[in-house]
Design goal:
The structure is a homotetramer. By secondary structure, chain A is an all-alpha fold. Helix content of chain A is about 75%, strand content about 0%. The termini of chain A are far apart. The structure holds a DNA duplex (21 and 21 nucleotides).
Chain lengths: ~190, ~190, ~190, ~190
DNA sequence: CATGAATGAGAGTTCATTCAT
DNA sequence: GATGAATGAACTCTCATTCAT
């Protein structure tokens, strides 16, 4: 019944995901997971040997879901600037914790790791996003929406600012106005230089 | 003996600071502090009730020292662009872990706190830096070194990028080239738009 | 299917035997057996309720095999002293762990048992060996190879020395020279008193 | 108060000693010790990190006590044969479990160790006893009590027989008669060959 | 008969925190 | 004030054993 087994594993990962979203990474214990899943201690260890292992699985699942997020947007026939604006709006939502997210847990996890795995999810996601944004900007330039001499640099700048905002939101809180202000500044850099 | 007491307290905070720089925040135990300070368990509790309390004191001490860092630079007769470049160079050093810093511990601390203190050090430092950079940019514009329509926006952009880079460095590592690239991009935004 | 059942039981016992030879008795878990046999947990419990039960079966199998070992030697036409020497040589081999054996596991098992079974394998084997050696010595005396006034006492002495050596080998290690020395001493007691 | 500390440590070792005498080595848990000593879990770990560590301390204490056992006998003006007889009588007492002993635990401990420490207590004690017995035999020969061409060999033979008997007693039980028989055999070897 | 997921008791270990001296 | 031994709660992890399929 490898099927049932896989199902249970998935159930644990999904339940754990919620726990991580609530409590972050560091403070979560195997007991927390066990209780959330309503299974036995030993039962959990059957599938995962530690919270780290479990969290990595949560992360992997996250990545799968994340991959097609962008696709959906690009698929439509919206203009590059509209797509970028949409992307930024969504980032804003997460930033302001309007939708629960693993954000905090992810940072805690990568902070706790002495040797970050080579194939670092955070890096991958960052680079992927930079790539997409760069393409978006280039497309925007072509269509006359944007003006930009260094699309890659601009894309990176956007992503670093977003990362900074994310951290700010987790460590001190940011107002919606503050986020808007940064997004606006960044967008003006692309549009406004006539 | 409030005097002796204060001295001991200071000694503990300074020793703890080193421990936090080495080990971060989360993994540091009271035992670690006790051993590093070579005092008794009970003795430590006389002054600090938890690592959190202790870390907050470390932070407070940090803040005092930090306040005058900028002053020194501004005092000189260097041009605004030179001062800014200097500031960025120093940030770069810390980013690349060329000098030991509390950076990681600070983030860990603010991540672990459920309710970040209102009077948040991180925010204060950030805002202070933004303010100084803004002034610097304005001075630079006046002197014709910079071109910038929104000095505050630019200052904030710089700081968010730096924060993003800092996080990147702690969670996945950043190359010197990557840091240089971002700094260059940011500086070009101020200089290059002829 | 009592036949198939018996076959499987035998398979388990034989596989377990190897495990016990490798790991001793105390540290072997049901999981170890299950994995070595590549059967299911429940499957194992169908046949054996514990490692103790299983080990007892291994021991029983051992005994069957052991019984005819001596026979083979006696059957030949070698002189008593040659047979005895051969026996001692083989014991030496086992002592020095030149051939894998259950030795350690057997001791561990009998140490762990609160109430050693009355029909104790160790005792049986010991007594049987004493008996054969006694006969050997008597035959040797008759043929003028040995001189011995108390063949049974000598036989027992030999066996206790061997047991002592075995223990020494498991608990602290013995050199080949040390074993040779003891064997020589014992043989000289039989031969050398001119 | 390193004094009080040392006292408590001694108390724990002595209490643990009793536990080991009762239960052997392998089955003893830290909890057993904690309960026997009526101290807290953490309190025990303050002194010993594992049952192994604790047992080693018990062993060390044992050794100290053991060292002077022989001295007492030798000091008197008894004849060598009388001293040897006394020694054997005491061994017999322990063998027959007439006095509680660590014997079983010691064997279990050395069986459980993968790599017996170089400075092996068992070996030391064995060698020390061999040495004393050898001297005893030599003295006996000089005084005309014993006849022996290889005192060291004889001493070793005696010790291996004793070890064999000890094991027999722990793994299958030995009768008093059986022990007497072996002792007699060994003594006759020293006396009877005229 | 056979499977293997699930259970839960229990061993080991660490740490913040207290308190008699 | 200062000490450091002592406490006990909390966590991790492993295993023998059971039971629905």
């Amino acid at each position: 019944m490898s099927d049932k087994s896989a199902q249970k594993k998935k159930y644990i990962v999904e339940t754990a995901r919620k726990v991580f979203m609530e409590k972050g990474y560091k403070t979560v214990t195997m007991k927390d997971i066990v209780e959330a899943c309503d299974i036995s201690r030993g039962g959990l260890y059957l599938y995962f040997g530690s919270t780290a292992e479990l969290f990595e699985e949560v992360l992997a699942l996250e990545q799968e879901d994340a991959d097609d997020v962008f696709e959906g947007k690009i698929a439509g026939e919206a203009t590059p600037s509209a797509i970028l604006a949409l992307f930024l709006k969504e980032q804003k939502k997460e930033l302001l914790n309007k939708k629960p997210s693993l954000g905090k847990a992810v940072y805690e996890y990568f902070f706790s790791k002495e040797i970050p795995a080579k194939e670092n999810l955070l890096k991958k996601q960052f680079d992927a996003a930079v790539y997409v944004i760069e393409k978006l900007i280039m497309a925007g330039v072509e269509e006359g929406e944007f003006y930009c001499e260094d699309p890659r640099g601009a894309a990176r700048n956007i992503m670093y600012v977003l990362e900074g905002l994310k951290i700010a939101s987790h460590t001190r809180g940011v107002s919606e106005a503050a986020v808007d202000r940064e997004i606006l500044y960044v967008m003006q850099g692309l549009i406004g230089e006539e």
